[in-house]
Specification:
3 helices; about 80 residues; alpha+beta
């Protein structure tokens, strides 16, 4: 399993594109061809793998929730 820590590593892992936040994590697992865990404080708009109900819930957060550094995620990418 690979580990990624921080925004720069995460952006590299997801090709540094603004994918829809609900883009399935499976795509990136297949591209990287091994499991990965990503730990990061959100400081850029790049984010994937959110379930639709969580993505909908983010509409109620602060407008700059993706870039403020107040929120973080732990994501596991497996096949």
């Amino acid at each position: 399993m690979a580990g990624f820590n921080g925004n720069l590593s995460y952006r590299y892992f997801v090709c540094n594109r603004r994918w829809p936040h609900t883009t399935e994590k499976r795509y990136f697992f297949e591209r990287f061809s091994r499991s990965a865990i990503c730990l990061r404080t959100l400081k850029s708009e790049v984010l994937v793998g959110l379930p639709p109900e969580i993505a909908a819930g983010t509409l109620h957060l602060h407008p700059d929730w993706l870039t403020s550094g107040r929120y973080g995620v732990i994501q596991v990418f497996t096949g």
